[in-house]
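User: Before I run my own analysis I want an independent prediction to cross-check against. Here's the chain; please return only the structure tokens and, at the end, one sentence I can use as a sanity check.
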Amino acid sequence: MTYPTGQSQMCAECGHEWNPDEAAVEEAGLVVKDANGNVLKDGDDVVMIKDLAVKGAPKALKAGTKVRNIKLVEGGHNIDCRIEGFGAMALKSEFVKKA
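Assistant: Structure tokens:
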């Protein structure tokens, strides 16, 4: 049992007040976007857009490398994946585009 109070809603029984638009954003959860602004999901394939040096590896990851079946996680490096020839990696979404 709620009623509108301007831009928000209020519960008539307990007095709790909230903005429905903000509640919808909070319920959406983790939203990760690629370099072009496309929303990524678990299981998507992405392509590297920039050469990235890999610490401790003899060669860099080259632009155009396809990464399959990504997993999204919280944090700065928000993509967990497995790259053929390199193994398990954590990438930043700003260096990939959706394939």
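Sanity check: The first helix runs from residue 20 to 28.
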